[in-house]
Write a structure and sequence with these properties.
CATH superfamily of the largest domain in chain B: Winged helix-like DNA-binding domain superfamily/Winged helix DNA-binding domain
Order of helices and strands of chain B: HHHHHHHHH
Number of domains of chain B: 2
Number of strands of chain B: 0
Radius of gyration of chain A: 30 Å
Structural class of chain A: mainly alpha
CATH topology of the largest domain in chain B: Arc Repressor Mutant, subunit A
Structural class of chain B: mainly alpha
Number of helices of chain A: 9
Strand content of chain A: under 5%
Oligomer: heterotrimer
Shape of chain B: globular
CATH class of the largest domain in chain B: Mainly Alpha
Shape of chain A: elongated
Number of domains of chain A: 3
Helix content of chain B: 55-70%
Largest interface: A-C, 61 and 67 residues
Number of helices of chain B: 9
Largest sheet of chain A: none
Strand content of chain B: under 5%
Chain lengths: 164, 195, 184
């Protein structure tokens, strides 16, 4: 059989992206057309796919049982150092106490006013929580991630059923 | 992570428990050594702790975590002298050393034999992965084992998506060349048009 | 370290600045310019659709009408969800859409019963009970009648068996033709 021309570097990059589901639109269609016509390209796609699947044979290493303990042990000197720095800072802050008390009273008055006279949410609030508001219909019924994950069961909503 | 940032007692330990397996696995795939992998993973957590006050949840925490891991791992790979670790002593592979791919196909006998051939195959694959340069290896591990898409890998590695695409393409071509003897081990006929 | 007069004078500015910003948890993300900019771009796109924008405004008012702990809870769920890997997010998103679509179609009494059940495991048990009843109702009549004749333990075992068969069939029939399959 006559050997088709090898893939160029760009074509190979497109092919890998295609196998990874990262190639879309016109580029994906062009590649699919090439794959349908070119047996060498198809063979390369198959070889790349199989090579990728071979990586599944690598064992997934687990951390040792004492990993967390050792990590926390290494953390202890850091925390001690921070504690010492905090204590030094606290002593300096005592001198500002009277200023803070005065300003705090003013702040309580300001916040209290805001609380008593709430303002309507506007564009700023919408921007802050856009993702949640856009999906509020779903989030209203899902209170935590554990519950959400539990819904992902075959007898619940984990797969499409005829009565879903 | 927000709780760690706010110095919530126990939050850091929970974080370590939650992410240790992924980090240790990542480091192990990169450096090939369990002890070093754990050491590097611990270092990542310490860096997370040190910079916790600067943490802003603008994107996924795991992206931030793996960005730190990426920087640490690449520095370690560039600066340390590593000796390849073999998972099997040479004599377990037979009198002539590691068995050729064809033999790995034919020896489909009892359980222990299958375990052996899987171990040998895993070792070949690990060596092929080690044959990649550091950035190619990191991109492969993030894509394959962390299931990151190109945009996420780009964010972790500080690259453009186009650069990640190119990196993964070269990496996978290199892996294909290194593992070409093993990809048709199930006896399936080599498709027409291939080498 | 000495405290200068200018630092003291800056303090009132800082305090009033703090008072002017919302005091809710999770708003540190809002201070991130890139995050807000992305949201701004999305919002500008959605403003072009009056119906969509009106719905956002309504939901915004409803969201801010919620008690502060509830708002915080929704932000926490959203944040935790977006820490998951993309594949899991897509999967769970489909789960959520199926769940909420199902919930919205339930008779009022059953939906309220679910929503009023605060304990998560009790709520899951209730959802599961209703789902099983609905699943049995959709079985062919003969199969349903045979099930009803069985004693409780045998009935439960048979339901498991029937569910397994249904899943296997669904997997087999939904598999795309080999020529069109993509692989990694």
């Amino acid at each position: 059989m006559a050997k088709a021309s090898p893939l160029s570097e760009q074509e190979r990059a497109d092919l890998v992206a295609y196998l990874d589901g990262e190639l879309t639109g016109e580029a994906a269609r062009a590649l699919e057309a090439k794959l349908s016509l070119d047996p060498a390209a198809r063979a390369e796609a198959d070889a790349l796919r199989r090579t990728w699947e071979l990586l599944d044979f690598l064992p997934q290493p687990q951390p040792s049982l004492r990993f967390t303990h050792h990590t926390l042990q290494r953390l202890a000197p850091l925390q001690a150092d921070e504690q010492r720095r905090r204590q030094r800072w606290c002593i300096r802050c005592l001198g500002l106490g009277w200023v803070a008390a005065l300003l705090f009273s003013a702040w309580v008055g300001y916040v209290g006013y805001n609380w008593l006279v709430p303002r309507e949410p506007g564009e700023r609030e919408l921007l802050q929580d856009l993702r949640i508001i856009e999906n509020k219909r779903l989030y209203d019924h899902i209170e935590d991630l554990d519950f959400w994950r539990a819904l992902d069961a075959p007898d619940l909503f984990g797969e499409e059923t005829s009565n879903s | 992570m927000l709780r760690v940032r706010d110095d919530d007692a126990g939050a850091f330990e929970e974080l370590v428990e939650l992410y240790q397996q992924r980090l240790v696995a990542l480091m192990h795939h990169l450096v090939g050594n369990a002890e070093e992998a754990e050491d590097l993973a611990q270092e990542v957590f310490l860096r997370v702790y040190r910079s916790r006050k600067q943490y802003r949840p603008r994107s996924k925490f795991s992206t931030w975590l793996f960005t730190i891991a990426n920087n640490l791992a690449l520095n370690a790979l560039r600066s340390r002298q590593r000796k390849p670790m073999l998972s099997l002593p040479a004599q377990d592979s037979g009198p002539l050393g590691p068995r050729p791919a064809e033999q790995l196909v034919r020896d489909r006998g009892s359980g222990p034999m299958r375990r052996l051939e899987r171990q040998e195959l895993a070792e070949r694959i690990r060596q092929a992965l080690e044959g990649l340069n550091e950035r190619q290896r990191m991109a492969v591990v993030l894509n394959k084992f962390e299931d990151m898409n190109y945009a996420e890998i780009a964010e972790v590695m500080g690259l453009t998506t186009k650069a990640v695409k190119s990196l993964l393409s070269r990496a996978r071509e290199n892996l294909r060349a290194a593992l070409s003897s093993y990809i048709y081990m199930d006896g399936e006929r080599v498709p027409e048009g291939s080498d | 370290m000495t405290i200068s007069r200018s630092s003291l004078l800056l303090l009132p500015v800082l305090v009033f600045g703090l008072a002017a910003t919302p005091s809710e948890e999770g708003t540190s993300a809002a201070s991130d310019a890139a995050y807000l900019e992305r949201n701004r771009q999305l919002l500008n796109k959605w403003k072009a659709d009056p119906e969509h924008y009106a719905r956002l405004q309504r939901d915004l008012r409803d969201f801010w009408a919620l008690p502060e702990p509830k708002r915080r809870q929704l932000r926490q769920v959203d944040h935790a969800f977006h820490q998951l890997n993309v594949k899991m997010q897509k999967r769970l998103w489909r789960v959520a859409e199926r769940y909420v679509a199902w919930l919205e179609r339930l008779p009022e009494a059953e939906r309220q019963q679910i929503e009023k059940t605060k304990d998560t495991s009790e709520r899951l048990h209730l959802i599961r009970t209703i789902r099983e009843r609905q699943w049995i109702e959709h079985l062919p009549r003969k199969v349903r009648e045979d099930l009803e004749k069985l004693p409780p333990e045998a009935r439960a075992a048979q339901i498991i068996q029937l569910r397994k068969q249904e899943r296997q069939q669904r997997l087999l029939w939904s598999r795309p033709p080999a020529a069109k399959q993509r692989g990694k």
